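User: Fold this; tokens only.

Assistant: Input:
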Amino acid sequence: MRRRDIPLAEPELADAASRYRGLERRHFIGPIAVGARSFPRAATFISFAGMSLLLALAMMQAQPSIEGRWRSPGGNSIIDIAPCGGDLCGTVAWASDKAKEDARKGGTEELIGAQLLTGLKEKSAGRWNGKLFIPDINKRSNAKLELNGAGQLKVSGCLIGKMLCKSQIWNRVDGPVPD
């Protein structure tokens, strides 16, 4: 017995069944019904592309940024990472007296305002490459930055190729710099 041959007891049910049979030949895209001669594959593709776009936008917004204020280990300096040109740069916003003295011994007269990080470009999600200035020895090296969650930034640099390397974990700081 085919579905259309099922007897219905009530006239309302018969009317509903006839309306349902008419909709069997249609495809739904949201609230709009499209006739049976439409392009169901195109509709599926459009729906999939739209959902993919929304997912990509949500992932981009959820990804934390390295922009902001960071405290170096030991709390001897605070670095502001912000856009400069088309890249990101890290500038010393505050430094302890000991950090200022160490920088002077290395040949950097003014530590506050010095750009420690320059040319930072995002390499992949949560990873950046650029240049690192080491004020204690007045040298530049390649820098790699890796965001560890929203509150920690691993900063690494090597002086000679992949030799003489060092890494530090910087912590995000909220609020004004100390006096």
